[in-house]
Each structure stands twice: as structure tokens, then as C-alpha cells.
Design goal:
Largest sheet: 7 strands, mixed
Radius of gyration: 14 Å
Strand content: over 45%
Order of helices and strands: EEEEEEEEEEE
Shape: globular
Oligomer: single chain
Amino acid sequence: QVQLVESGGGLVQAGGSLRLSCVASGIIFSTHRMGWYRQAPGKQRELVAFITSGGSKNYADSVKGRFTISRDDIKNTVYLQMNSLKPEDTAVYYCNAYRRWSGEYEYWGQGTQVTVSS
């Protein structure tokens, strides 16, 4: 059974920082591209950042220079360090695991709420 469990969300003032973590189980973590998505009320879910199995990173333009994604393949964990947070970063943040090898597989966490007050 695949599980992605996020933690680290919360309430923070604008300009503050949070670090999200996502621990994966039930998958061969090192073979998956890991990502963070977010969904604000009334909006579609959008990509925030992803990191490939080889360590390449990709960021949404809105978070470049403020957020950093990283992974620890020993701990089966992906992180999202969020600095200089803005009210528009308020959303539910979801962890995603994706693999296109021997089939296509995609998994989601349950989400963690991030609220940035002005």
C-alpha cells in the first residue's frame, strides 16, 4: 500500500518560512519523480516544484528564488523549504510521486494546509 504523508504546514506571517516534509512508503522512492502541488480555494491544483530521480529540479515561476525542493532517498522523504512567504502562497500543499517506467504510476498525499497572513 502506497502512502505519502505530508507534515509541516501551518499558519505563518508574510515574510516567514515553513518547511514541508513528505514521507513515502510502499514505493521504490529513488525511482520516482517527487513533487509538490498546491490548491487554493476556488482554484485548480498547480505545480509548485518537482525533483527528478536524478536530482534535477523544476519550479513554478511564482516560487522561484523563494522555495527549494530537495529529497533524501535514504529517508524516503521529499522536502519543500518555503521562504519569504506571501499571502498568495496560501493553499493546501500536496505531495506527489510519479514514475513512468514499466507503466505509469502516480500517487498523492492527503495534503497539508499552509496559511500566510498579511
